[in-house]
Amino acid sequence: MTKHNTFERKCVACRSFHNKYEMIRLAKTDEGVFIDKNQRMQGRGTYVCNNEECIKTALEKNLFKKSLKCNIDNETLEELRNVKKE
Length: 86
Fold this sequence. Notes:
29% helix, 5 strands, alpha+beta, single chain, two-stranded antiparallel sheet
């Protein structure tokens, strides 16, 4: 077995693996779904590449809703749409 020094996660949209620190994480907590900028929140998480194409695909196909198994409020979705523009 090999030892991995990188933390790779799979993008919910393009299904490819990338370093988790180069991706955007959404976390589901008891209070709702949030963009986890520091990637340290408790709860179920899902990752998406930090590019417009993957974010757009994930939003159009409701992949965050499927992955986190819950509804996501419009405020969080709008924040996610604007995260790449920053």
